[in-house]
Amino acid sequence: MRRILGIAAMICGLTAATVMTAPTAASAVLATDFHGIVALSNCSGSVVKPPTAAATDPALVLTNGHCLETGMPRPGQVITNQSSSRTFSLLSKDGQSRLGTLRARKVIYSTMTNTDVTLYQLTTTYQQIQQTYGISALNLPSTHPTAGARIDVVSGYWRTIYSCGIDGFAYELHEADWIFKDSIRYTSACHVIGGTSGSPIVESSTGNVVGVNNTTNEDGERCTLNNPCEVDAAGNVTVRRGIGYGQETYIIPGCLKAGNEIDLTKAGCTLPRP
Prior knowledge:
This protein is mainly β. The chain is built from 2 helices and 20 strands. A 6-stranded antiparallel barrel has the order 11-12-13-18-15-14. A hairpin with a 2-residue loop joins strand 12 (160-175) and strand 13 (178-186). It is globular and about 50 Å long.
């Protein structure tokens, strides 16, 4: 998992917005920026808006399950509607400054089972964030990402954008005691580092969030912490040193109801239940 690893030594050199972009053929894509991006105390995150959410609904912040302030959820553990007053630094569109502080009301969902996600419900609405800061949320659609798509991993912690492509999908990703399913595998250009955990994976052509960044195989080890391995349907194991992964987010909107509340009993919801 992309925890804060060696950050004290690196932080002085990465305080301003930086863009790390893989060389590619010219194509018609949107210019990804930092609108909707937040920095956590130990991770990155984003303000996201599912398709059915209203402007007057309390806004949601998306990050990783392993970024939860009370500690990483155990395998099989699902947390819902847990009180939280965590704060998030909202960045300007260019990533050069902090516009203000957003505050959580509660964790509506957090798990590291099948996926690696935490969703915070804020004390402010999308409309209030737009009116106060001029910042809109990132769209969180219910469509599966596509192999070969251009993506940007946008880190609020580092104020850095990593650009690459979706190389494919891992049937299962095993890391220590956790198992993630149908994970997004990056091409090698997205060399994400500690502090990028929870960054949204933004599809370059649409600006939509298609996943959340969560881990990299750092040392070439097999299925250990910070060294995830891929396991296919037949049980074959593949280790890809230096390759990063993220978790898909298209299943989240189907588990939300009016007011941006979680409803794991909703027809079609496939998120793990407690």
